[in-house]
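Sequence, please.
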């Protein structure tokens, strides 16, 4: 009986020391090798993104693609599709960001749908909340829609739910469908101070709009390595006839 009691105490003591020693050892290893692990992760991420860039440039070409029949952009993209990597063309005034790849994606969607810019009533923007990305997208919209901008509504819901990464495009399509079915335009929430460089675009600030007659929408989804997707949606003839 004493043997069993001694064995039990030894087992309990060893278990307690193990439970204490393992977290302590893990913390010590983490503290010693944290920088090395982070540097290794950064190196692997850089390698992956470099390969994505090489693949995209091999299919799209090194030269930036300028949208046809539009004003020349004030900036050119050094790596096609990476719309935050933008450098000014020599002699260009100001710091107006324009990404030819984003404008080209919207123009392609319009062409596939046999539409012209003034046919669009609403854009579900990608608008990730970054200064360079939002500015580039806004300037591309102004470049594509030109005189149609005053009648165009543009908003993004990312301020409400965050960036859903691969699911962002699907949610953007859902927002576009809601706009078509019920005339619901979601607000760009938490918009407190407007950047004067974004032009005259209507961002539906802070308060959603209801019962807005919407016939056609664009859904923007932009990402790494020229993975830019734009989908044009429209009402059927029956649904359009019901609108005022």
């Amino acid at each position: 009986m004493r043997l069993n009691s001694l064995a039990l105490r030894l087992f309990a003591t060893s278990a307690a020391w193990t439970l204490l020693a393992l977290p302590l050892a893990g913390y010590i290893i983490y503290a010693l090798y944290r920088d090395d692990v982070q540097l290794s992760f950064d190196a692997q991420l850089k390698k992956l993104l470099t390969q994505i860039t090489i693949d995209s440039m091999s299919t799209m070409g090194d030269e930036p693609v300028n949208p046809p029949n539009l004003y020349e952009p004030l900036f050119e993209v050094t790596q096609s599709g990476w719309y935050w990597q933008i450098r000014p063309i020599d002699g260009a005034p100001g710091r107006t960001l324009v990404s030819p790849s984003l404008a080209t994606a919207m123009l392609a969607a319009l062409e596939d749908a046999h539409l012209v810019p003034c046919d669009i009533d609403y854009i579900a923007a990608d608008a990730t909340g970054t200064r360079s990305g939002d500015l580039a997208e806004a300037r591309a919209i102004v470049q594509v829609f030109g005189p149609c901008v005053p009648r165009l509504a543009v908003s993004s819901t990312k301020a409400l739910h965050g960036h859903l990464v691969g699911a962002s495009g699907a949610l953007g399509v859902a927002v576009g469908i809601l706009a078509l079915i019920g005339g619901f335009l979601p607000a760009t929430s938490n918009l407190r101070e407007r950047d004067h460089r974004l032009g005259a675009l209507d961002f539906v600030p802070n308060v959603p709009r209801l019962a807005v007659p919407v016939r056609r929408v664009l859904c923007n989804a932009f990402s790494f390595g020229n993975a830019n997707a734009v989908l044009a949606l429209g009402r059927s003839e029956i649904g359009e006839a019901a609108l005022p």
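The longest helix spans residues 2-60.
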